[in-house]
Design a protein that fits this description.
Largest sheet: 6 strands, antiparallel
Number of strands: 15
Distance between the termini: 38 Å
Shape: globular
Order of helices and strands: EEEEHEEEEEEEEEEE
Mean pLDDT: 86
Helix content: under 10%
Strand content: 35-45%
Radius of gyration: 18 Å
Structural class: mainly beta
Amino acid sequence: MANSIRATEFPAPGLRNPFRYITGHNSKGDAVFLQTDHGDHRDIMLGGIGAQSIFYSSDSNPNELTGDVDLEFAAKNKASVKSDHVCLLANSIFLSSVQPSLHMPNGCVARMIDFVPGAASNMHRALTLGIGTVCEGEIELSLGSGEKRILRPGDVSINRGAMHKWRNTSDEKSARMLFIMLDIKPIIVNGKALEFEMGELMKEYAEYAEDEGPNKKI
């Protein structure tokens, strides 16, 4: 990394603090905004070369929206134990407890990640369907084969379990991506089941329960 800039919080230097608007219904059945904030679990990653914010997480698919069941789950699984944040949601109070893992088994995670200038990840594989959209800046996506593409604002990556790494191509400006991480069935390639290969990135997420994620027995 050619630049010494580090993020000390989310958002990364030079990027705006994005809003999150959660909709639902009031007691009359009217469509309303239930929550307006800046997301959950706002934290730095890898010593400050990145920063993340969780915008949504669920533990089921199809998802249960009736009675705001999904929002209660998200509120209870939105932040690390380092946070003292309290969330007001539909007149109820939920204390922050545990951050989501990289993805939620049988569910989803919407995670925004900022990359400081020149930031690059290690080569890694997550056994998820990862849908990534560039929001700000330019990001280089490199695959295990050596192939590369430059993604610009509005471009979308559909990562289907491929070994890959990300790099902010700018040494002056931070970049941003929004990732939707969905659970998948085992991926079989040439008769062999692929495995999680996250390296140092895995420590940035909550540990998986037994027989989930990388602990899952195939």
